[in-house]
Amino acid sequence: MGKDDFIQEESWKNVLSHVMQQPAWIELWNRVELAYSESACYPPKHLIFHAFQACPLHKIKVVIIGQDPYHGAGQANGLAFSVHAGLKAPPSLRNILKEVWDDVGGMPWVDLNRWAEQGVFLLNATLTVEEKTPGAHQRWGWEQFTDEVIRAISAQRQHVVFMLWGNYAQQKESLIDVSKHLVLKAPHPSPLSAYQGFFGSKHFSQANDYLISHGREPIAW
Questions:
Q1: Ramachandran angles phi, psi of 29, nearest 5°
Q2: How many helices (H) and strands (E) does the chain have?
Q3: How many other β-carbons are positioned within 10 Å of the β-carbon of residue 213?
Q4: Are strands 129-130 and 41-42 parallel, antiparallel or unpaired?
Q5: Burial of 105 (C-beta count, 10 Å sphere; 0-12/13-18/19+)
Q6: Phi, psi (5° rounding) for residue 60?
Q7: Using CA atoms in the order 36, 33, 55, 71, what is the torsion angle rounded to 10 degrees?
Q8: What is the set of active-site residues?
Q9: Between β-strands 120-124 and 62-66, what pairing exists: parallel, antiparallel or unpaired?
């Protein structure tokens, strides 16, 4: 992957090209390249930026922020919380799909590309991970990059719904202009906290109500 090949989608390339030319980015990417050459890392390298390819900046309606990719073989597909079709839903995704069903009656798709195609941007704060080592690539510089992504969405778009689940995601609220976007907060959907307020939060119906109120098509969850 050459230095100009990270993000091909034009609307993202236009707002992020300056970030990806900075020394901190080059240092981060060199570290990622080395990690992928020395050990099993996920998602596959060609899917690291899949969230950007699947959901162009100008189409974003909803942003869901995760922490880092699944660290099991064959799971991560470049979209936060999503796995490849045909796989069993990991615990957090299973709870997300339960809340979707209880809230709006959506279908239990484990591959969330269906959401991305409708304008749901599924962003992990850290875009890569080492196999069986959750958080292995945190504090490498990914968070600084994805913080810039969140700032760009806030600045460039209007009336976006940000779903911030858990303390980690909620720290990103300071990057969002709440005067022109809707921020929805709830506990994380993991089994450890889902029953503390994620279940019953009704974020999916709230998001659609907000989108409709601003003349935008709702998401078919």
A1: -65, -35
A2: 8, 6
A3: 10
A4: antiparallel
A5: exposed
A6: -65, 130
A7: 30
A8: 68
A9: parallel
Instruction: Dig out the tokens for 42 from the structure.
Output: 């996920």
The alpha carbon of residue 7 and the mean position of all alpha carbons in its chain are separated, in whole angstroms, by 15
- Please, what sign has the CA dihedral across residues 71, 75, 78, 82? negative
Please give the backbone phi and psi of residue 71, each rounded to the nearest 5 degrees, phi first.
-105, 10
| Segment 181-214, tens digit of pLDDT | 999 999 999 999 999 999 999 999 999 999 999 9
> Which pLDDT band, with edges at 50, 70 and 90, does 3 fall under?
very low
Amino acid at 53: Q
Kindly give the interhelix angle for 142-156 and 23-38, rounded to the nearest 10 degrees.
130
What's 90's DSSP letter? P
Q: How many CB atoms lie within 10 A of CB 44?
A: 13
Strands 129-130 and 120-124 turn out to be: unpaired
pLDDT at position 4, please? 47
Give, in order, the Cα–Cα distances in Å from 198 to each of 54, 64, 91, 161: 26, 14, 13, 16
| 129 membership: H or E segment, kind and range | strand 129-130
Q: Is 74 left (phi over 0), alpha (psi -120 to 50) or beta?
A: left
Please state whether the peptide bond connecting residue 44 to the residue before it is cis, i.e. omega within 30 degrees of 0: no
Select from 6, 13, 5, 96 the least CA-distant residue to 57: 13
